[in-house]
């Protein structure tokens, strides 16, 4: 019985991820999520409490997956940005969920605990790399993290495309990845003092 409940909860999370990534929190409908998961919508409220809490559960689960699949290596932030870029290409849903989160939550809402701890871990890793001279100190560690994340997702939205088709070729994706990695390399490399 507990196994069935866990499977149902997982189906709801998967259906909700698809619904929220496409429509955001305000546009998502619990009846569509329940129908897609093949269960009664009352289970959404039973398992998660509200549509907003369901979104938060979906968002936290996806952030945790990305953190596990792409651990930060502050000594090689260009490679980290490249791996994030790859992940966004394979799973655009993650970036869409993060964007909806930013659009639909007020600053007073606060960051989910799991996401906050993940970000604090990354900032601490960058701070250590800065102390060791591997990363520029021109930006504070939290600023540097924000810039690296922004660069990693640069090509993930159609408005980012300066020209060309909205479905890029594999060669174009490789070119875009190289531009992200090189931009981060230029951003984070410590500048040697002049003579």
Protein described:
With 195 residues, the protein is mainly α. It has helices at 2-27, 30-37, 42-48, 51-69, 77-90, 92-104, 113-131, 141-152, 170-188. Helix 1 (2-27) packs antiparallel against helix 2 (30-37) and helix 1 crosses helix 4 (51-69). The longest helix is centred in the N-terminal third of the chain and has 26 residues, at 2-27. The radius of gyration is 19 Å and the shape is elongated.
Uncertain stretches: none
> What's the overall average pLDDT, rounded?
89
Give me the count of strands.
0
Structural class: mainly alpha
Helical content (DSSP H or I, runs of 4+)? over 70%
Q: What's the SSE pattern?
A: HHHHHHHHH
How many strands, what sense, and barrel or not for the largest sheet? none
- Shape descriptor reads elongated
Gyration radius, rounded: 19 Å
Query: Count of helices?
Result: 9
- Give the DSSP E fraction (strand runs of 2 or more residues): under 5%
Keywords:
9 helices, single chain
Brief sketch in words of this structure:
With 195 residues, the chain is mainly α. The chain has helices at 2-27, 30-37, 42-48, 51-69, 77-90, 92-104, 113-131, 141-152, 170-188. α1 crosses α4 (51-69) and α1 packs across α6 (92-104).
